[in-house]
Amino acid sequence: MAKKHELIKGSIDSLLLCVIVQQPMYGYQIIKELERRSQGYFKFKEGTLYPALHRLDKAGLIRGEWQTLPNGRQRRYYYITEKGLNILAAKRGQWLDFLTAMNLIIQPASE
Amino acid sequence: MAKKHELIKGSIDSLLLCVIVQQPMYGYQIIKELERRSQGYFKFKEGTLYPALHRLDKAGLIRGEWQTLPNGRQRRYYYITEKGLNILAAKRGQWLDFLTAMNLIIQPASE
DNA sequence: CTATTGTGCATAGTGACACTAGGTGTCATG
DNA sequence: CATGACACCTAGTGTCACTATGCACAATAG
After folding, report:
1. Which residue has the higher pLDDT, A40 or B69?
2. pLDDT tens digits, one per residue of A36-47
3. For residue A5, which residues of chain B lie inside 8 Å, CB to CB?
4. Three-state DSSP class for residue A61
5. Are B30 and B49 in contact (CB under 8 A)?
6. In what order do the strands lie in the sheet containing B25-26?
7. Nearest by CB to A106, which of B39, B95, B104?
């Protein structure tokens, strides 16, 4: 039960690219940003986010760079790549297609 | 590659309930109906559909009944149950919530 | 001074689930 | 007689989000 979020599968990549494309971000910040912008709907845990970031990094869609803060701490900022931009555009299109198809089926028969 | 359909995960149950609620259907027909109504977007294979139907049946959301055609062939028609109706309503709500959240993130920053 | 909470990164294990690939059998068409 | 449509089914596989856990440091609370 309580598996309301099965829909999310397959959308995380797009979500991550969407926030990183606006400005480079580090993991923890991404979680907060997604929660903020979705008005609390998306609350990813680290165990979900970091593997996803690594996957995108490995795929060449984003690039992670360690940065040292003035206090000596380390953060890993992720930047979107050219390839990532292309994929993001494609994913936006896929999302629209999917959305359209879903709405054709799921909307209550309104006749 | 060619995994454009990762988004579909978690939506199949809703799709099946959506078509069965309008009229009882059998598996093969459901595939065709979903393809027709989505204008070709959803093309489920039997290996995807039948396990999903069995799952919904087991969960009590639909009920399958064998019917014998005049020519002696057998079809299994699925009917939605009371429980299925409730779940369908809930799933429609979840879909709207998800849709809203996704759009908040994914739409191009249009300011 | 210690405990908790927040920040920040990471991995291992699990379970759900759609997909591929295959199997059975009938019927109509070429 | 072979192909494709019809109609059902299952086993195996891979992906992926989630839970749980760990490390490390800072700030605040008690």
Report:
1. A40
2. 999 999 999 999
3. 10
4. coil
5. yes
6. B25-26, B74-80, B62-68
7. B95
The Cα–Cα gap between B47 and A97 comes to: 23
Nearest residue (Cα to C1') for C15?
A3
Beta strands, E only, A1-111: 25-26, 62-68, 74-80
- Distance from residue A69's CA to nucleotide D27's C1', rounded to whole Å: 17
User: Identity (one letter) of the amino acid at B46?
Assistant: E
Q: Which residues of A touch B106 (CB under 8 A)?
A: 14-15, 18, 92, 95
Measured CA distances, B24 to A1, A37, A61, A87, B100 (Å) = 26, 41, 45, 40, 31
| Alpha carbon of A46: minimum distance to chain B alpha carbons (Å) | 19
Q: 3-state class of A25 per DSSP?
A: strand
pLDDT tens for B78-101 read 999 999 999 999 999 999 999 999
Chain B hits for A34, CB-CB cut-off 8 Å, are 105
Query: Which class is domain B9-105?
Result: mainly alpha
- Burial class of B41 by CB neighbour count within 10 A (0 to 12, 13 to 18, 19+): middle
What residue spans define the domains of chain A? 11-106
Q: Domain A11-106 maps to which CATH number in 1.20.1250.10, 1.10.10.10, 3.30.70.2740, 3.10.20.30?
A: 1.10.10.10
pLDDT of A22 reads: 94
CA of B61 to C1' of D9 (A): 20
CA A80 to C1' C11 (Å) is 24
